[in-house]
Amino acid sequence: MALWMEAGSEPKTEGEKADLAAIAAIKESAALDLKEKGNQYVKMGKKHYSDAIDCYTRALKQKALNDSDHSIILANRAHVNLLLGNYKHALLDAEEAIALSPINIKAHYRATKAAFGLDLLTEASFFCQAGLKQDPHNGELKLIMKQIDSRQSERRKREIEVAKSVAAAKDLVSVIMNRGLRLGKPMYEELSGKRKPMLDKDNVLHWPVVFLYAEVMSSDLIEDFVRLTCSRSALDKNRREGVSVSPHGKDPTYRREVPNLFFECNLAMLMGKKDVDCWTLEGSGTAWTSGGGLVGDNIGRGPVKYVKVNEKKTLLDVLRHPQLVIPGIPVFYVVSKKSSFYKEFKTGNWSAP
Fold this sequence. Notes:
Number of helices: 12
Distance between the termini: 94 Å
Number of domains: 2
Radius of gyration: 36 Å
Number of strands: 6
Helix content: 40-55%
GO molecular function: Hsp70 protein binding; Hsp90 protein binding
Structural class: alpha+beta
Protein name: Tetratricopeptide repeat protein 4
Largest sheet: 6 strands, mixed
Strand content: 5-15%
Mean pLDDT: 82
Low-confidence stretches: 1-5, 237-250, 252-257, 286-301
Organism: Stephania cephalantha
């Protein structure tokens, strides 16, 4: 009997040939029945999708159907996997279905949908165009081709925007580094709104600056300090334009000509170049991640020390001070030497606002 034949051997008798034909017919019938049963499970809804996949898989294992039928079953299984969101499995099935029958339009469509679901736009476009060559008037393929084109256009636009952001950030970092400025881990972001320096078309740095009034625990944010602006003249300009430079009202101790500006030495942890890159790109939609480039810390840095700002110097000269690590953006303390708080401030025995 054919059942006892060795694997790979040819039938020798008419009886063996008849047995093999009967076995093949049984397997073919079983495969077709499983295919139809799978189709019925699909119609019964989501609760039966796993049963449909099982039936299609068992039908394929019979290995009793021709390439065209196998292609149809694979495309059907791809359809169910698409309904379940199993895009990788759907794509594999659809690709195999196309290989077995290049004219299987449903396989092309399902390969397109699976690739699109995986955001593989180049592959999705390839499968869609191949399907349209077979059926140029297919409405489903035309519709998803429009969706692919739209997403590709959005991606190109986003890539251009990201490239511009990266280029601008690199230029900014280059200028900061070339001008001998040391950037530290950002601080006081709740006061600055996470603002960052900006480089204009004339290669001039514009800095947001935070002024802290330590004695009364308040602050001011000056959103745009130009690189060549003196600290004193900038504050005077803000006062003339109605921007507060002191929360003390009419207190003569805090008239603009009285207070002094200070910065704290090595306030922030110095960042390495990669972390500076990451910080400047923060919020730009890029995929940059921190490089762990902090090259200093606040542990054991010695007693707190404040340096008085020479307001006749430009902001750039002030920021170049060898003991100043800029905590993201410049932070200056506004303190009057005539205030009773001045001695306490110089000791560092107080909490910053």
